[in-house]
């Protein structure tokens, strides 16, 4: 049987917007986060404290974190690849910091400019500092289902990186399909490899929708008992270090599916659709959520 309740982590303001070529001003990001807060998310990935030379769109992260209207109990997360990022996230009042590694060596080099082993060493002080300051610690494992540079990623590599993230004391670990190549049985095999190394209730599925497989993969993960999923309002995004990759699965589509399955999310679908319409209008294009567009056309 499927879980009765899931947590949907909204990553649009970070994973979605990080890839936009046009500058999205801080006040637009703040308005988006505020709308998502009002829609009922318990966890919103709002910022990324990475090098502005690598990801210019995230350079306004401190301003965004300072400007949002925080709702008590909601976790606002920020990416922190190293101690410099951690200090910035701490100063900005992030509740949760996210270290991000990869299951493929090639992607680790392209995305964070170091090997997997070096990345774990770099994350150690971040993990320690997070604990010291009482912040939640989450890890993201990119290219767990396939890599744009090396192709196949062995299940053993996923298990290895998940185990290292566990050893760092992570509260939650994301298994990420960076380029959206997984199909449902593959999704289950990879999630099983992760389940072998970490508490199932701390694992999340982070599916990009490049090949239109994300909802099917989420369903496949639900069948295993996974209860945390990432999605991006209006299907925003892509990854700057994964050419051709599209956004995360659209939040509206995930909430619509969960509603239909009778799985509780705590999220108001109409409010997410409105937030999606707001950001799509700003970006000057039609949103990428099928459910969102259908509901807007009603
Ligand atoms: P590096 O060049 O090896 O680092 O980059 P460095 O320590 O040698 O520093 C170089 C310069 O960057 C220095 O500045 C530092 O101050 C600065 P300079 O002296 O040249 O003027 N710097 C920073 N500035 C601001 N904040 C920081 C920071 N760190 C260094 N935290 C580094 C290494 C990791 C910093 C770099 O590679 C980087 O920023 N990468 C970002 C990659 C990224 O953001 N990718 C997208 C997010 S991951 C993702 O989307 C995947 C995910 O969604 C899951 C999935 O779908 O797979 C999570
Ligand atoms: Mg991603």
Automatic annotation (TrEMBL):
<feature type="domain" description="Pyruvate carboxyltransferase">
    <location>
        <begin position="6"/>
        <end position="273"/>
    </location>
</feature>
<dbReference type="InterPro" id="IPR000891">
    <property type="entry name" value="PYR_CT"/>
</dbReference>
<dbReference type="GO" id="GO:0016829">
    <property type="term" value="F:lyase activity"/>
</dbReference>
<keyword id="KW-0479">Metal-binding</keyword>
<dbReference type="InterPro" id="IPR013785">
    <property type="entry name" value="Aldolase_TIM"/>
</dbReference>
<dbReference type="InterPro" id="IPR043594">
    <property type="entry name" value="HMGL"/>
</dbReference>
<keyword id="KW-0456">Lyase</keyword>
<protein>
    <submittedName>
        <fullName>Hydroxymethylglutaryl-CoA lyase</fullName>
    </submittedName>
</protein>
<dbReference type="Pfam" id="PF00682">
    <property type="entry name" value="HMGL-like"/>
</dbReference>
<comment type="similarity">
    <text>Belongs to the HMG-CoA lyase family.</text>
</comment>
């Amino acid at each position: 049987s499927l879980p009765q309740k899931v947590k949907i982590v909204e990553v649009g303001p970070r994973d979605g917007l990080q890839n936009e070529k046009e500058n999205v001003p801080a006040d637009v990001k703040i308005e988006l986060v505020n709308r998502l807060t009002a829609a009922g998310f318990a966890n919103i990935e709002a910022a990324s404290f990475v090098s502005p030379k690598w990801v210019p769109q995230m350079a306004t992260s401190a301003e965004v974190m300072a400007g949002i209207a925080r709702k008590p109990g909601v976790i606002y997360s920020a990416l922190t690849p190293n101690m410099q990022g951690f200090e910035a996230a701490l100063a900005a009042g992030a509740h949760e910091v996210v270290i991000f590694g990869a299951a493929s060596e090639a992607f680790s080099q392209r995305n964070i400019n170091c090997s997997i082993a070096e990345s774990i060493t770099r994350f150690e002080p971040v993990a320690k500092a997070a604990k010291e300051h009482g912040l939640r610690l989450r890890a993201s494992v990119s290219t767990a289902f396939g890599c744009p540079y090396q192709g196949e990623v062995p299940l053993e590599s996923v298990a290895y990186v998940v185990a290292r993230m566990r050893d760092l004391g992570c509260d939650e670990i994301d298994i990420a399909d960076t380029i959206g190549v997984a199909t449902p049985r593959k999704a289950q095999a990879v999630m099983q490899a992760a389940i072998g190394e970490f508490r199932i209730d701390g694992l999340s599925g982070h599916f990009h929708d490049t090949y239109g497989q994300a909802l099917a993969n989420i369903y496949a993960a639900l069948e295993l008992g996974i209860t945390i999923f990432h999605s991006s309002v209006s299907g925003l995004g892509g990854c700057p270090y994964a050419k051709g990759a599209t956004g995360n699965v659209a939040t509206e589509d995930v909430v619509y599916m969960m509603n239909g399955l009778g799985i509780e999310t705590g999220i108001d679908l109409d409010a997410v659709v409105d937030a999606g319409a707001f950001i799509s209008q700003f970006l000057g294009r039609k949103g990428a959520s099928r459910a969102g567009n259908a509901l807007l056309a009603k």
